[in-house]
């Protein structure tokens, strides 16, 4: 070229679009990991037990194999915290007339309390105003028949459990020194399924408001078989209830894949799930291990698959993976981590939470946090909806995200503590089913093709958030209904 010839100005090439690693998410890997975690070996992974800790060590080994770096305390994959457990002492006793109530076998006390009661028992039917008007309940123990079905859309379980606070509270205000609820035929099914949960008592972080033991009149729940003799006149209720309160450890598991962008790598997209379930409890059909395959080994296996994808192709932002312990005890691990994160809290730009993703209709799912007042980032939700259309194309159920839904599902998983802090947060779920919190929630019942598609959807959302320049915008004026 002659020296006098002018060079054409260089044309800037557009930045290459990051290529994802969706091929690293494989159904066979997910199925293998889920069977490993939700088999009988870990005995249901109950929060705060050795079984949860053993499962957490197993998960840390799987995480290490993916190539993720430890992001817990002191260069480990673990962040330890203590549970405060408050329960009735084994020495507690309860008797009605000639009937000794064996706590957590033939009857349950619905909340731990220090109480000494020796009072006549009066039966007031269903406790209607007309029935109560006939009886002086002051200074007496009051027996009430559970009856009726809700007509206002409240689920039956919430209706019955609401009586333990609402109706019992009104009776105590009127002078009752103890309240005894007796199951009818419909509520007997609830008693069989849920009464064993009261044996555990209450859990919290040490120092939380609900750790304080208040001596209140006891509320007792009896099976339907007690209905005939509870109504007999002239019986005395005697109770000597004592409370134990103590601490033991639980753990979060934390890992990361550093980002590739010099600035954006200081920010994190947090992938969230929980590793615990209900442990060993009252047997149903001869099985006493509550394996929690859908709840929430599905989320655990999904995060391992997403880790493999981020290892194969890192994103501009860093990816943070948190398995939160003791979720079933009241979101305790996520409450602790959100308040004491191992990365700066302000660096977490979004939380994508996996909760029960492998059951129900194959082409249906839900994205909680997508409907006001639960919507705290329209921006994040739009990204998730676009990822659904680009990937699995689930038909999305929006009913479960509404504040009027009787299950209150939005408030029952690990995205909640982050949302309360204003961090954009959503939950991926395939919703409840008949095996929820029973020994029938087994690995053999999972729809692995669906779980793989749910995992892909979650990954594609996180991948998009991790590579865009601006973090998801937060919703102005966000405020939850409770």
UniProtKB/TrEMBL annotation:
InterPro entries to which the protein is assigned, alphabetical: M28_fam, PA_dom_sf, Peptidase_M28
Boundaries of every Peptidase M28 domain copy: 252-456
Listed PANTHER family: METALLOPEPTIDASE M28 FAMILY MEMBER, PEPTIDASE M28 DOMAIN-CONTAINING PROTEIN
Protein name: Peptidase M28 domain-containing protein
